[in-house]
Write a structure and sequence with these properties.
The chain is of the alpha/beta class. It contains 7 helices and 5 strands.
């Protein structure tokens, strides 16, 4: 496993929204990731999802500012990872995972990413990655 961390839209929202219930925890975890110099990234799918979430929750100005100056590298999802995501969803019919969730899972597997910074319990359900954010 690599030292890399994929960030989810829920972590981005919690970090930027001081009123979010997970804000303080998000700040602490973001600082830990930075102090450990862990390479971090988002996928282009997470970028789109996070932008939409930020528009809805914090408004278009903050969403646009984050999009243009977010600071996290954006990794483009490969067609094989998109296909793997569809296979994951086809196998797990009892889960309410989104395509974006499943794409994150596929990227994590394909690129041997060790951690996800998220407050989305779906990542814990998937179970193949260390989840930063959710309490144990």
């Amino acid at each position: 496993m690599t030292r890399s961390v994929v960030w989810d839209s829920s972590a981005i929202l919690a970090l930027l929204d001081a009123d979010d219930a997970d804000h303080a925890r998000a700040v602490t975890i973001a600082r830990e990731i930075a102090s450990e110099a862990r390479p971090s990234f988002i996928t282009n799918c997470i970028e789109a999802e996070a932008h939409a979430l930020l528009v809805r929750k914090l408004g278009r100005t903050i969403a646009r500012q984050w999009l243009l100056t977010g600071g996290l590298p954006v990794v483009r999802v490969l067609p094989a990872e998109e296909q793997k995501a569809r296979e994951i969803l086809a196998r797990h019919t009892d889960k309410d995972w989104t395509l974006c969730d499943a794409i994150s899972f596929a990227v994590v597997e394909a690129r041997h990413v060790g951690r996800a910074f998220t407050f989305d319990h779906h990542f814990r359900q998937y179970g193949r990655i260390q989840v930063l954010g959710l309490k144990a």
